[in-house]
Amino acid sequence: MRVKFWGTRGSLAKPGPDTVRYGGNTSCVSVESASGTQVVLDCGTGAHAFGQELVANGAPMRGHLLISHTHWDHIQGLPFFAPLFVPGGEWDVYGPHGLGGSLKETLAGQMQYTYFPITLDALGATVRYHNLGEGTFQIGDIRVRTRYLNHPALTLGYRLEADGVAIVYACDHEPHTPGAAQGTEPIGGQDQAHAAFLAGADLVIHDAQYTSDEYPSKRGWGHSTHEYAVEVCRSAGVERLAFTHHDPLRGDDALDALVDSFRAEVGAGPPVEIFAAAEGQVLELTCDKDASPSPDEPVRSALDGDSSAMRGPILVGMAASPWAKLIAEAAAAEGIHVDAVDPESISLRYVAGHPALVILDDSAQGRAACRWIRSLDDDDSADVPIILVGAERGDDPAVTDWLVHPFSVEYARARIRAWLERTPLRWARPPLPENEAQRLDALHGLDILDTSAEDRFDRITRLAAALLGTPVSLVSLIDDDRQWFKSVVGVGLREGPRESSFCAHAILDQGPFVIPNALEDDRFADNPFVTGPPHIRFYAGCPLVLPDGHGIGTLCVLDDKARQLSDDQLRLLRDLADMVQEEFGRLERATATAP
After folding, report:
1. Please, how many CA atoms are within 13 Å of residue 69, restricted to the half-sphere of its CB?
2. Is position 453 within any domain?
3. H or E element at residue 473
4. 417 and 448 inside one domain
5. What is the pLDDT confidence band of residue 308, given thresholds at 50, 70 and 90?
6. 271 and 315 co-located in one domain
């Protein structure tokens, strides 16, 4: 593979007389496989020169942008990347969805009218956006593996493999252990997991913004030291290490001195070739072994990442403290439901809540609760991430990770999101019916959406709740991107997103659609209406079908307790649904005869 550096500076572009040799532009690296697959790693200000070269050469107008995260020094070149403005071009943009929005929404933010004269939608090329999680996917002949890095924003590292060569790009990553950052402790724990991601790579392009002396005042800022980059690559058996994300205050002479010092010391450990990445530098990497070493294959596709798919809830068992408050703020900012309890109540709330993540104090009580959860004889308890919050990291194998204070709300948000994203998502979006366009036309033709409540429908939902013994009953209509409730008993909602709708699944069937226990169903266990209010456990819905055969909604009943319906109760639900359909028939006839 052919690698070229277009931007190597971190945090801020810094052109000037003391950055001539290593460059002043922010992060951008191009990678091209032997077959011509073109990948761009990050799109900082260095992307401008690369885009100009591509346009001048006339090709390729087909490429792939891999964004590590959406901090400005990694995306500021996007509005100036010329190939995106060329009609007929095709580009796929990949990256983590960030905090609170999709990748496209986040990138569009810097091209709003206030900041830039051209919007993202005005680009001439066809641009597709892909929200990524942690896992693997394929770009042409290049296999890409992603892993979350340790940074105050959701950040991905990329491992690219093709033609027997492996390249890893790990930009904006902070060591998990302060001792590892300063070179006083061996690589272990989560830092060892990071090393496994780098294992056997021919080239690692690694964040190295700080020295070990600078790190104590920069802790929590999300960047590595040169010492850590060297040691983690040594432990991973890496052949070549390129320092990148150079500090804006570090000029060419200072970088030369740093590289020389590490080259002098590297003889004391496993060999690794060390250099500082420089703008314009080109590397031709060829396979000189039978096969490129690769980490263990993840079980999930990285393309499963979805900005709207937030797992939860999380169970927090901590004594009152500023750190417990920061965790609650971080989860709330992510829209995650938090069940905060006293540490002594962990066992009861864990069994009742089925949390997707557990956060505990690093105390005797917290460690005891961790051991108790792991002792339970079920797969969920064996796999649920358990995080301990304390002043330093430990080495308990039952603990998934440590959250070491002090930390910021932003840092906690990124870590919580990464821990949750690593767990399998048990939530299936409802597929669209084959006749979706005609179905929507039929629904809209009734002119019933957003109308006032009517007793003729409310009588039926009251009967359904009373006869079937459920606290909630609804007449739910499935619109383009929402479910809207014509009649509501037992809950204070009038509409909700279609992607979270049980009823949007139910309209695909002819008969009753029943979920006895949503927590045990992989289609619904992580649905927001299950993990949060109204905490649905039981659902039963009968499709509401117009005479032309279009299913427009359901009559449904809900409960916050798992249960079943008897055959007689299912017949009652069907009879009541028929009554709702008769009312729709009257409404349809009235609409048809209206002047």
Report:
1. 23
2. yes
3. strand 472-478
4. no
5. very low
6. no
Backbone angles phi, psi at 274, to 5 degrees: -115, 135
- List b or e across 129-163, with b for residues whose CB sees 16 or more CB atoms inside 10 angstroms: bbbbbbbbbebeebbbbbbbbbbbbbbbbbbbbbe
Q: Where are the beta strands (DSSP E) in 75-179?
A: 90-96, 126-132, 136-139, 142-148, 156-162, 165-170
Residue 432 host element (H or E): none
Q: Burial of 217 by CB count in 10 Å (0-12 exposed, 13-18 middle, 19+ buried)?
A: exposed
For residue 65, give the 3-state DSSP assignment.
strand
pLDDT of residue 113: 72
Give strand ranges (E) for 54-155.
62-66, 90-96, 126-132, 136-139, 142-148
At 362, the amino acid letter reads D
Based on the fold, state whether residues 16 and 92 are members of the same structural domain.
Answer: yes
Task: Report CA dihedral (404, 406, 411, 415) to the nearest 10 degrees.
Answer: 20
CATH of residue 462: 3.30.450.40
Residues 393 and 449 in one domain: no
Structural domains of the chain, count: 3
Residue 241 tokens read as: 């290490």
Cβ-contact 183, 231 below 8 angstroms: yes
Residue type, 203: L
For residue range 500-552, list pLDDT tens digits in order: 899 999 999 888 999 999 988 888 887 878 877 888 999 999 999 998 889 99
Question: Does one domain contain both 537 and 588?
Answer: yes
Pair (173, 44) in one structural domain? yes
Distances (CA, A) of 593 to 66, 179, 565, 582, 590: 57, 79, 40, 17, 5
- Domain span at 326: 309-421
Query: 391, 421, 451: which is the final residue of a domain?
Result: 421
Listed in order, strand segments (DSSP E) in 295-452 are 314-317, 338-341, 357-361, 386-390, 401-404
Q: Which residue has the higher pLDDT, 531 or 447?
A: 447
Return the CATH number at 395.
3.40.50.2300
**What are 509's strand-pairing partners?**
none
Q: Indicate whether 414 and 511 sit together in one domain.
A: no
Q: Helix, strand or coil for residue 131?
A: strand
Tokens representing 139?
Answer: 């770009």
DSSP structural state of residue 363: S
